[in-house]
Amino acid sequence: MSIPFLREDALPVGVVQQVAPGVRRILCGNPGPFTWRGTNTYLIGQGRVAVLDPGPEDAAHLEAILRATAGEAISHILVSHTHRDHSPGVAALQDATGAPSHGFGPHMTPPDQGGEGGDHGFSPDVTLADGAVLEEFGLHAIHTPGHCANHLCLAREDGVMFSADHVMSWSTTVVSPPDGDMAAYMESLAKLAQREAHLYLPGHGPPLPNPAPFVAALAAHRLEREAKVLDALRAARRATALDLVPAVYGPVLEMKLVPAAARSLLAHLIKLEAEGAAARDGEAFEPR
Q: How many whole angstroms separate alpha carbon 108 and alpha carbon 260?
């Protein structure tokens, strides 16, 4: 099943866009291979505002947030997860506003255990456990590990879902062990699929209307990829994740994307190992 990605987004950096009732989006100018055009920051509410994902340390983006909320009070700072393109901007925004930060918790994987991509300086003032509710903004916290172990999506009762990096409109999500977990990602995707929503607002990319078919396509894509990984492993008899990249992705994959592809394949192999379909031997895996 092909995934109907949305890869047209004309929003300029720093400009405010109304994307849903009571929700505004500001795009940070931090483009890259994993952030696409940049990180989306959402302003939720009017008068009293919750800022979701202030982004990286970026003075221009901080100024854009403060300019957009001039005359209003930022009362909450929300963090979907602790990757460096989402949470490091909290500190400067707190200095400017005094608002408390809210999130699932600090980054769970230490740098020496593969958590080098995390923001280890962030710890929320207020912990949002799975099922927590921010009554003032009608937001329900949904713990969705997979991309990041402390990842949260936030759902409103009117069918608006802040899907952060668990479901992005422009691309599939990076799942890189050990903080990324493919089994957890699939379980979290199924959890979101059970909730009715008419609009997803992702951490990167434009708003995603009618998300149900998109989420189903994401799940089907991962299962198809997993089948390819297992077929390639059976053909190789013994291989590392990097060894399997050409067989799974084909010859058209750009060299700069090979390391990320290998991390994704490692996540699949770890899932297959847990399910008894593969066995690990050092860095290599063998089929069972």
A: 21
